[in-house]
Structures are given as structure tokens and as C-alpha cells.
Predict the structure.
Amino acid sequence: MSDICYRPPGTQLNILNGVNFSLREKSFGLIFGKSGSGKTTLLQLLAGLNKPTSGSICIQRYGDDGQPKTDPELLPTEKVGIVFQFPERFFVADNVLDEITFGWPRQKGSLQLKEHLTSNLQRAFNWVGLDSIPLDKDPQLLSGGYKRRLALAIQLVQTPDLLILDEPLAGLDWKARADVAKLLKHLKKELTLLVVSHDLRELASLVDQSWRMETGGILIAERPPV
Ligand SMILES: Nc1ncnc2c1ncn2[C@@H]1O[C@H](COP(=O)(O)OP(=O)(O)OP(=O)(O)O)[C@@H](O)[C@H]1O
């Protein structure tokens, strides 16, 4: 991400002012900082939900020898998943299967895509440890930790290269927080994670790279203060 500036349409002030950072593949990146400093705004740009006013967000692939394989390309937003704060508030279905397959192709012609998604579904459930949950269970009846697992599975089924999480532990009890942190440690082996969080205690041991965001949208590389 280089020299990203963002000013919401119709406003005069930049929320982000020249943000620069790069996150390595299959690592765990943490962004922390004061409320209102622009963390969520940054995540929304990475997920393609808003466009930067200037600057670019690119992906650079490296070979096993550590040398760049290709020129940097613009980050394909279909390879980015995002789990917002309190994702369970946005659940719409009355059973786990419908929740996870919401928006999937329903027509006969899309059978191949359906099969592809179904095998991804098995894998995603396996990764997040949802295998033991009946698919007809009402998502609202799951425990707090299992609701977060479901929210993760909904994104993982789309096989993102980058998974962004906004405050993944917020509102959970200590046991669920520890469970979700353990799960993120496991997921880090499979894909790149970028997390915004104030919960530095549980997550600090997972962090490979971290940045503090200052008001005015400047990122400074810094270890989490725990
Ligand atoms: N569309 C918008 N128009 C005007 N101001 C906005 C808009 N979106 C966000 N802001 C402002 O930009 C600043 C950064 O907001 P943002 O939500 O990104 O901060 P944050 O660091 O994620 O905060 P928190 O930790 O409380 O979630 C805030 O002052 C917010 O009020």
C-alpha cells in the first residue's frame, strides 16, 4: 500500500494522509491506535469497499528464493475477505447452512461453481472447527465464539488470500477470546491476516508485523504495547 490518501466524498478533510505499509504473505499483521484514527477506513479501502482518493494498493508475489516473481499488480479485491466488528449482528438466515450459502448460485447451470463452493465449505468448516455443528441450527443460538467461527467460515469459503478482521475478539468472554485467538494462530498458516484490534494481550504473541495508527491516518511500525 503506497501513499494512500482518503477523503470521504463531500468532505474537506483527509482521514488518511499518505499511508504506507507492506504485509508479508502468510503473516499476521496488527494495526492498533486511538479510536477515530482511521483504522476501519483503511480496512474498507483494502477490502475494495471504498476507493482511495490517491495512492495504490498492490500485491507483489515472491518466489521461493525471495526474489519478486512479477511486477506489483493492483490487489484483486475478490481475493480479500473482511469480517466486520460484531459480524453476528449481520446474520440473516435461520440456519447455519443458509447463512453460509447466502448469495450462492441457485440455478442448475451453476452446478460446477456450487460443487467448487461445497468443497471449499468442507474445508472452511474444518479450519474453523465447525464440523460438529448441525447445519440446520439457528446461528443465533450458537455461542459467541461459534458465531465468530461461522463469520470466519463465510469468508474462508471464498478462499481469500488476505483476510481482514476488525476487532475479532470484541464482546467475547475470556474463554471465547482465547478460542478465537487460537483459531487465528492456526489460520495464519493458511493465509495472510490483517487485524485491527485493541485486544493486544491475546493477540500479541501471534503478531509478525504491527503498526500504530496516529490521528490523521499515519501508520508507524511499532510493537504492540503489552
Ligand atoms: N464517511 C465519512 N465522512 C466523514 N467522516 C468520516 C467518514 N467515515 C469516517 N469518518 C471519520 O474519520 C475518522 C476515522 O474513522 P474510523 O472509523 O476509520 O476510525 P477508527 O480508528 O476505526 O475508530 P474506532 O477505533 O473507534 O473504530 C473518524 O473521525 C470518523 O468520524
